[in-house]
Specification:
By secondary structure, the chain is an alpha+beta fold. It is built from eleven helices and 14 strands.
Length: 508
């Protein structure tokens, strides 16, 4: 691994480590929020239960007062209990810790020291208690202590009295404070445990990504065979790994095609250059008459023309891939174009002993780019003539129906093996026959055809068997909308779903 690759690898590892930290922090923050919310809910529930428990105790003590407190006819009162009974004495003492007894004018009949600390009686409270039937609950504080007070009125011996009974909330507050302190002291300990588990979980979750990063370091032009194994969970990581493996497969195919293209292009350019140099050297050293010089120059010009065609194809490929080829569509009659191309290849077909026929339907109108359609038809007919042996036949037909135009080019030539059919429209792809050496080419003709068809919103299908020829069917819409700009894309293999909806010519 090169130093810059090591640095990049370390940086990627560092970024994944940072992602692991962020995931762990996210886990901790999430659980911290959950624990805090749960703790506050439990604290609120405990506070409510303690308050209800205090109200229940205060209500019991309110009822107990009526059992011990007695009133005389003159308005005086006394506590009736057995002084020698420790239990009764303790109950009465507890009831009188926070206790107030007055008449409706506010005259104090009895008030404990505990109640005196709470600012004593207030006439507003006496009037409010006298105006309602039910008892009133209040909370009063003295320093850091709070008391739950029940206030109400009752009648005895023909008089109405105001009674207030209080209960210290100290035990409830201590219980609440103890729960709060204990719980929130445990939260950091729990979060430390969550952080550890989150760190392990994040590491396990990111392990496929680390493997993916490691695999990318091994990828290069000569080594594109790396594939990652799926985790088997069927989750997003499996989807990512599948897409990554598919990308590597496409890259591997592209690199193979590029290498093959480089070899083919180098050979195609070297062959005419070598021939030109040989012809000129022979003429330079051996030619003695103008006729010999003329023959050498003529042969060299023929090879220059061939080399020019190769360079022209490469230049067109560059323009197409960079998006510089714009379609200039118009309503065009395809019949004269197909006839002209067929007539152009008649001489080449006759020289090879091939029968070239064409049948066209007049006034076959389509909205197309004339120049590109001429190139499309020319490439199809050229391939058919090139790969059809002497004595064979090439047939070109042009038909139409409502909304569609059909161009069919069939031959009785070498045919295309089934394993090559899915790739024949790929750039730089060339069919290699096992029994014969094919005529050399750059593997761009059918790729250009596919681009032209797709740029015109059409479809192209092929049916072929090795040794029994091939049939290409191009379907174009007769009134497709104008596309001002089209960019060349790698072709996808033809499939049944791409077939036109109207009945095309039978490929069988």
């Amino acid at each position: 691994m090169q130093p810059n690759e090591i640095t990049e690898f370390a940086g990627t590892r560092s970024r994944l480590g940072g992602l692991r930290v962020r995931l762990t922090v996210s886990y901790v923050l999430f659980f911290a929020l959950v624990l805090i919310v749960v703790g506050l809910l439990f604290r609120r529930s405990l506070q409510f239960n303690l308050h209800q428990q205090s109200v229940a105790v205060l209500n019991e003590e309110w009822g107990a007062i009526r059992g011990y407190l007695r009133f005389n006819a003159d308005g005086t009162h006394h506590w009736s209990y057995h002084a020698d009974d420790p239990e009764e004495a303790y109950v009465v003492e507890r009831l009188r810790r926070v206790f107030l007894l007055t008449d409706l004018e506010g005259n104090v009949l009895e008030m404990s020291n505990g109640y005196r600390l709470l600012d004593g009686p207030r006439m507003s409270e006496i009037r409010e208690a006298d105006s309602v039937r039910d008892a009133i609950l209040r909370t009063k504080r003295h320093g850091d202590r709070s008391f739950l007070i029940r206030q109400g009125t009752f009648r005895d011996q023909g008089r109405t009295y105001f009674l207030a009974l209080g209960l210290s909330m100290l035990d409830s507050e201590r219980a609440l404070a103890s729960f709060t302190g204990t719980y929130f002291l445990m939260v950091p300990v729990l979060l430390i445990g969550v952080a550890g588990l989150g760190w392990l979980a994040a590491g396990r979750a990111l392990r496929p990504l680390n493997e993916l990063v490691t695999a990318t370091q091994r990828i290069s032009g000569p080594n594109l065979t790396v594939r990652l194994a799926l985790t088997g969970h069927g989750d997003e990581l499996d989807t990512l790994i599948s897409r990554f493996n598919e990308m590597l497969e496409r890259l591997e195919r592209s690199f193979v095609q590029m290498r093959q293209f480089t070899i083919n292009a180098s050979h195609e350019l070297r062959t005419p250059i070598t021939a030109i140099r040989g012809q000129l050297e022979v003429a330079l050293f051996t030619a003695r008459s103008p006729e010999e010089y003329q023959e050498a120059i003529s042969t060299a010009l023929h090879d220059v023309e061939r080399m020019g065609q190769i360079v022209k194809s490469l230049l067109l490929l560059s323009q197409v891939e960079s998006g510089q080829v714009a379609l200039e569509k118009g309503t065009v009659d395809l019949a004269p174009i197909v006839e002209a191309v067929a007539n152009h290849f008649h001489l080449a077909a006759e020289e090879k002993g091939i029968t070239l026929t064409h049948v066209v339907t007049p006034n076959t109108l389509a909205r197309v780019d004339r120049a590109q359609c001429e190139r499309m038809v020319s490439n199809l007919v050229s391939n058919a003539v090139k790969f059809t042996p002497s004595g064979g036949e090439v047939r070109v037909t042009l038909t139409r129906d409502t909304g569609h135009v059909y161009l069919t080019v069939s031959d009785t030539g070498q045919g295309i093996p089934a394993e090559h059919l899915p790739h024949i429209f790929d750039r730089f792809y060339r069919v290699v026959h096992s029994e014969r050496e094919p005529e050399r080419g750059l593997g761009l003709g059918l790729s250009f055809v596919d681009w032209i068809v797709k740029a015109h919103d059409g479809t192209i299908e092929v049916k072929s068997e090795e040794g029994r020829g091939a049939t290409f069917l191009v379907t174009l819409p007769s009134g497709s909308p104008t596309v001002p700009f089209a960019v060349f894309q790698p072709a996808a293999p033809a499939c049944e779903s791409d077939a036109p909806q109207v009945a095309p010519p039978d490929l069988s």
